[in-house]
């Protein structure tokens, strides 16, 4: 049995070499519209007022002149009518098609966890509501792909980049490339370390880890004097995994020091892999390890943990945590096989990120709740609060917010 915590704080992954950059040689000023001359057409000179005509005598010269006058007036009135109609249904003009729009480039690590599609969709909706656009590229958990995709977005001259890094350090050199091209960069949900990133928008991940640990430990029967605790971490290349771990330890360390809890397993799971979480718990149990509580970093890893517990008929007997309030996790909470998840209202985060992107594009200082050190600087940050979700508050949290439906969670309205 592994009785020593294996406290990894390094990513163990080399910082990726910067590839040949495709930064455009003509940097675009942030938020600058594509300007073309205003070619609003000038209205034609209004026609003369219609003269009042007295009834002409047929066959007279005066009659001929009057007919001519009426024809001319009618032509003028027709011109006026044409102009009126033209104004009512204008053809797209050069001026209308060049309305300044902010173009946001979104670089996602992955769509594996259910949340990221929501992040993308909410950001796109918010941007569209403001006449802006979002171009999304997904790196499929590969650093080289993500770097190339960010360079692609820079070459497309987006106005602002929003990045969810696969590796907190690997993408750092692309920030300098973006800045050279006049593009501001937002680290979304996950911090980008050792870089000049402009701002960071996320949830307080240390609090996520605290909520996970507190609620799992609360669920351990009082009859267990010194619970054996397994820590199933997230991806070591994701700064959030380190913050979540730090939050777990804030709760656990005093108990361990006081001899009131024992950490029997402590490892990260590359790419937040449910399969790695599963394999780790399975192996621990297979070698006869005893466990009383499992603090899993997110709902994905929790799914692997519960699968391993199920195979040993232990599901529902050992408290398990997660985060993201994914539907399958909340269903597990209802079924009693997971104890807690941590709800992070994605729409608030996505809206905030887009609002910050629009502010940055206008050259404004974005709103913030403080700063976070990324190893190179104090990064202006906007951190939102997460909420612990247990069986007794599902309705008043995720369902009340419309994040999940009662029908999906409980199978009824
Ligand atoms: C996010 C979690 C997510 C995990 C895996 C973390 O950075 O904060 O919400 O479950 O990545 O994608």
List keywords for this structure.
alpha/beta, binds beta-D-glucopyranose, 13 helices, seven-stranded mixed beta sheet, three-stranded parallel beta sheet
Instruction: Tell me roughly what share of residues is in helical segments.
Output: 25-40%
Major sheet description = 7 strands, mixed
List ligands, each type once. Answer: beta-D-glucopyranose
Biggest sheet: strand arrangement: 2-1-3-4-5-11-10
Strand content range: 5-15%
Structural class: alpha/beta
Radius of gyration: 31 Å
* Count of alpha and pi helical runs: 13
How many beta-strand runs? 12
Order of helices and strands: HHEHEHEHEEHEHEHEHHEHEEEHH
Cα shape = globular
Unreliable residue runs: 1-97
Task: Report the average pLDDT across residues.
Answer: 83
Ends: how far apart? 46 Å
Please summarize what this structure is.
With 413 residues, the chain is of the alpha/beta class. The protein has helices spanning 61-88, 94-97, 115-129, 143-155, 172-180, 205-218, 239-257, 274-286, 299-311, 327-335, 346-361, 395-399, 406-410, and strands at residues 103-108, 133-138, 160-163, 184-188, 199-203, 228-232, 262-267, 293-296, 341-343, 370-373, 378-384, 387-389.
């Amino acid at each position: 049995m592994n009785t020593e915590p294996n406290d990894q704080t390094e990513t163990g992954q080399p910082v990726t070499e910067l590839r040949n950059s495709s930064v455009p040689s003509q940097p675009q000023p942030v938020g600058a519209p594509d300007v073309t001359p205003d070619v609003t057409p000038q209205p034609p000179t209004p026609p003369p007022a219609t003269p009042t005509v007295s009834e002409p005598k047929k066959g007279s010269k005066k009659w001929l002149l009057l007919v001519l006058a009426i024809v001319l007036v009618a032509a003028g009135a027709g011109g006026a009518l044409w102009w009126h109609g033209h104004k009512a249904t204008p053809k797209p003009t050069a001026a209308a098609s060049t309305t300044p729009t902010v173009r946001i480039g979104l670089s996602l690590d992955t769509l594996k966890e259910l949340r990221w599609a929501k992040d993308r969709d909410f950001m796109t909706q918010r941007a569209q509501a403001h006449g802006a656009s979002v171009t999304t590229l997904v790196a499929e958990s590969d650093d080289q792909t993500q770097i190339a995709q960010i360079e692609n977005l820079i070459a497309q001259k987006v106005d602002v980049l929003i990045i969810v890094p696969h590796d907190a350090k690997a993408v750092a050199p692309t920030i300098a490339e973006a800045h050279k091209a006049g593009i501001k960069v937002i680290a979304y949900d996950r911090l980008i370390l050792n870089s000049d990133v402009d701002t960071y928008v996320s949830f307080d991940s240390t609090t996520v880890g605290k909520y996970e640990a507190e609620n799992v430990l609360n669920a351990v029967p009082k009859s267990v004097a010194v619970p054996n605790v397994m820590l199933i971490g997230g991806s070591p290349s994701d700064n959030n995994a380190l913050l979540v771990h730090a939050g777990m330890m804030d709760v656990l360390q005093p108990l361990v020091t006081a001899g009131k809890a024992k950490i029997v397993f402590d490892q990260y799971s590359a790419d937040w892999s449910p399969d790695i979480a599963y394999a780790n718990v399975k192996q621990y149990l297979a070698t006869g390890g005893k466990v009383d509580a499992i603090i899993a970093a997110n709902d994905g890893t929790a799914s692997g943990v519960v699968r391993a517990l199920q195979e040993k008929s232990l599901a529902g007997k050992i408290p398990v945590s997660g985060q993201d309030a994914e539907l399958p996790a909340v269903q597990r909470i209802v079924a009693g096989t997971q104890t807690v998840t941590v709800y992070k209202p994605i729409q608030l985060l996505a809206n905030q990120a887009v609002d910050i992107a629009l502010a940055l594009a206008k050259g404004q200082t974005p709103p913030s709740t403080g700063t976070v050190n990324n190893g190179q600087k104090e990064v202006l940050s906007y951190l939102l609060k997460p909420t612990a979700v247990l069986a007794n508050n599902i309705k008043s949290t995720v369902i009340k917010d419309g994040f999940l439906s009662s029908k999906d969670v409980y199978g009824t309205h």
